[in-house]
């Protein structure tokens, strides 16, 4: 049995070589230009709590995937979603979504080149050829539309360069048979046109083993590519187009069971049962694991300079096919095994038209826009007690969705398989004006109107394409349609003070975030779905924030501090009913809560080439209203005392980096150490879902010589195996310590 207890802290010597996780990709003496408010500004003057990672920092720290950002940003929890290889589990300042099913819109929007990735499945991006990443904390609905009531994460790729041919390639070898190959090439076509091509192959045999059949599991097998084109057909027109495709055959992540509490029958401990004494051993009836996810899309941005204003059109298309099986019980065949099977199809289109400019001789910056998004999702879903047979992927050739389904007796209880569908149309109009009151102060006012319409269909099946017929002759299917509208304002003010070698910007803001209503796509009780199911109400977040962004001591120190208070209303939770195996997941509006926090991040250039930095953040949360009992009285007497998910009272990160000449090249040393106070993963705060040892350390050493570089890096140095996500009686331990070496060449 492996207990989730605290391990010794990393030594001070190791801390010295911690990697810079500071929000800046530039040294502390510089500043970064961002477009967080849809116009170019210095990050230190933007009245938003923002963390920026530049492309150079991403490469130097060998940040290969978006899941590494979880320790880079105050109050951000970002990890692989439960059981998936490419799903993103994101909570920002306590606002997030724990269930990846498509009926639940993620409230922290992930954007690539300003096109929203609407689903969390497939959103855990591989980072290749990235210009920068901007993480905006707090509601961003005025400027970024759908799914940003908690914040926005913007990934901006490098644009083609019409002036030179060049590129880069790297090869990575690492633990558990890891073998990565990545490459980028930039090709000018004409003096006004260039293309850029990027590709990646990532293979790892897996750090786990299923003792039932001896196969390696929790591996990775990903291939992907992106093509982009930049064309300037005239002095005032710029066209930027991209297309991307990722093929993920990694398979699902496997869970471990929680240990029983001998002192309290029926309760579980926050400790994993380790088969044969090794947490990397698993016992699972899922001997033909499925984890196939294909994602891709295209975007087209056209900017027209009107002389004093710019008209932009941003068109996006995204598509997803995900076929995956989740072990729900972590048991071998014949011991009550249940596997959740999902076959999801998704496609969406979006169109945004935006006008930016200035008025009154530059005294006012103006922004106005229109936005539309249309999306379709459907998913064949089944819980099966069958033991997989045949070759890998056989379930999708032999209709195993319908073999040994897990269901209640009769036709009124839980039923499997079933097929939910959702069609969404979202319309919005927005505007923002920023007035410059002299050279030091600005006032910003913005407003967004949203009109969102959803149609939800669900049907219960007995065979492929065959709808269950109830005893009274009715087909077991239902359609629900709802429409929600919202007006979201934003007000902000900032003031700059400065002197010789220092400057500080103080700001205050008030903003509202909106996440539209939804439906419970996990509901499979026939009587509930056909007779009583209704829509889940929209969530709203009102955020008040004050902060200071400063650069001190001849701009060697960057220090940012902010304090926020969020009023979070009609919170929608997905949770598993207590003591249900497999987990019986339900969704409801639990009530309202207040979340407040203090955040500070810093970077200090102590000496030329030596930087120290880090961040610290607090969260204080409490329910202010419960709409109805969530059924948690077995675990807490007063349900108003429940902690929200992923809201540790305190989190921190410490880091350092050192760059020194060595021979004809440069030696680079770095790493990071992060930790957290205890926090809960589940709504009812059950003991097994409480995490009290979420600490990690990463380190690297690299050498650069001309166009060549070699980086030796390690993640999870202390091999801390805490729970990254859990539901019911099962949880997912984080990956073990991994070491990799990367060789990179620019040309």
Automatic annotation (TrEMBL):
Q: How does it sit in the membrane?
A: Multi-pass membrane protein
Q: Which residues form the TonB-dependent receptor-like beta-barrel domain?
A: 259-717
Q: Where is the signal peptide?
A: 1-23
Limits of the TonB-dependent receptor plug domain: 44-152
Where does this protein chiefly localize? membrane
Q: Name one GO biological process term.
A: iron ion transport
List UniProt keywords, sorted A-Z: Cell outer membrane, Ion transport, Iron, Iron transport, Membrane, Receptor, Signal, TonB box, Transmembrane, Transmembrane beta strand, Transport
- Entry's localization field: Cell outer membrane
A Pfam cross-reference name: Plug
Question: Mind telling me which InterPro entries this protein's record contains?
Answer: Beta-barrel_TonB, Beta-barrel_TonB_sf, Plug_dom, TonB-dep_rcpt-like
GO cellular-component term (any): cell outer membrane
Q: Which family does it belong to?
A: Belongs to the TonB-dependent receptor family.
Q: What is this protein called?
A: TonB-dependent receptor
């Amino acid at each position: 049995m492996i207990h989730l207890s605290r391990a010794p802290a990393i030594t001070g010597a190791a801390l010295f070589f911690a990697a810079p996780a500071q929000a800046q990709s530039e040294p502390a003496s510089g500043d970064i230009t961002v477009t967080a408010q849809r116009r170019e500004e210095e990050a230190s003057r933007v009245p938003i709590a923002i963390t920026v990672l530049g492309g150079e920092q991403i490469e130097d720290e060998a940040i290969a995937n978006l899941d590494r950002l979880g320790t880079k940003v105050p109050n951000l929890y970002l990890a692989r979603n439960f059981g998936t290889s490419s799903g993103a589990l994101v909570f920002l300042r306590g606002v997030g979504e724990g269930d990846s099913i498509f009926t639940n819109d993620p409230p922290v929007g992930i954007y690539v080149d300003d096109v929203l990735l609407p689903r969390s499945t497939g959103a855990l991006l591989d980072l290749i050829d990235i210009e920068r990443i901007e993480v905006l904390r707090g509601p961003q609905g005025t400027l970024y539309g759908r799914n940003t009531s908690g914040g926005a994460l913007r990934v901006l790729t490098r644009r083609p360069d019409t002036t030179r041919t060049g590129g880069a390639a790297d090869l990575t070898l690492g633990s558990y048979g890891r073998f990565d190959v990545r490459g980028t090439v930039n090709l000018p076509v004409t003096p006004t046109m260039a293309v850029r091509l990027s590709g990646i192959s990532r293979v790892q045999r897996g750090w786990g083993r299923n003792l039932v059949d001896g196969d390696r599991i929790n591996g990775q097998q990903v291939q992907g590519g992106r093509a982009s084109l930049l064309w300037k057909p005239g002095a005032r027109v710029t066209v930027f187009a991209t297309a991307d495709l990722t093929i993920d055959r990694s398979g699902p992540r496997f869970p471990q069971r929680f240990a029983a509490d001998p002192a309290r029958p029926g309760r579980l401990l926050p400790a994993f049962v380790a088969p044969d004494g090794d947490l990397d051993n698993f016992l699972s009836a899922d001997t033909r694991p499925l984890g196939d996810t294909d994602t891709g899309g295209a975007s087209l941005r056209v900017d027209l300079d009107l002389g004093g204003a710019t008209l932009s059109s941003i068109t996006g298309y995204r598509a997803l096919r995900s076929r995956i099986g989740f072990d729900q019980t972590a048991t071998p065949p014949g011991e009550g095994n249940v596997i959740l099977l999902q076959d999801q199809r998704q496609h969406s289109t979006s169109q945004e038209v935006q006008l930016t400019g200035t008025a009154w001789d530059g005294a006012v910056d103006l922004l106005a826009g229109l936005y539309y998004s249309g999306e379709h999702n459907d998913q064949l879903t089944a819980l099966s007690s069958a033991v997989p047979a045949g070759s890998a992927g056989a379930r999708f050739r032999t209709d195993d969705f319908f073999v040994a389904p897990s269901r209640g007796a009769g036709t009124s209880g839980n039923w499997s398989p079933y097929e939910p569908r959702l069609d969404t149309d979202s319309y919005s109009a927005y505007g923002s004006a920023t007035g410059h009151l002299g050279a030091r102060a600005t006032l910003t006012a913005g407003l967004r109107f949203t009109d969102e319409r959803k149609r939800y269909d669900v049907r219960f099946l007995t065979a492929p394409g065959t709808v269950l017929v109830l005893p009274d002759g009715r087909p077991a299917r239902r359609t629900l349609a709802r429409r929600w509208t919202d007006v979201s304002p934003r007000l902000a003010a900032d003031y700059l003070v400065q002197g010789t070698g220092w400057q500080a910007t103080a700001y205050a803001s008030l903003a509202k975030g909106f996440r539209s209503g939804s439906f419970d796509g996990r509901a499979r009780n026939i009587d509930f779905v056909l007779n009583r199911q209704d829509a889940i109400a929209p969530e709203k977040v009102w955020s008040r924030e004050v902060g200071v962004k400063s650069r001190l001591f001849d701009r060697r120190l960057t220090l940012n501090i902010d304090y926020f208070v969020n009023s979070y209303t009609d919170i929608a939770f997905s949770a598993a009913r207590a003591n249900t195996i497999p987990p019986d997941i339900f969704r409801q509006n639990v009530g309202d809560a207040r979340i407040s926090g203090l955040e500070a991040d810093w970077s200090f250039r102590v000496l030329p080439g030596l930087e120290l930095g880090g961040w610290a953040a607090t969260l204080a949360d409490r329910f202010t209203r419960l709409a109805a009992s969530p059924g948690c009285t077995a675990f807490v007497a007063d349900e108003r005392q429940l902690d929200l998910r992923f809201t540790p009272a305190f989190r921190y990160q410490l880091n350092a980096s050192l760059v020194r000449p060595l021979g004809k090249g440069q030696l680079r040393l770095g790493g990071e150490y992060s930790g957290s106070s205890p926090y809960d993963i589940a709504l009812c705060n059950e003991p097994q879902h409480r995490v009290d040892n979420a600490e990690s350390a990463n380190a690297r050493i690299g050498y650069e010589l001309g166009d060549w570089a070699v980086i030796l890096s390690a993640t999870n140095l202390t091999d801390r195996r805490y729970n990254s996500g859990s539901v019911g009686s099962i949880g997912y331990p984080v990956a073990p310590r991994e070491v990799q070496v990367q060789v990179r060449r620019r040309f």
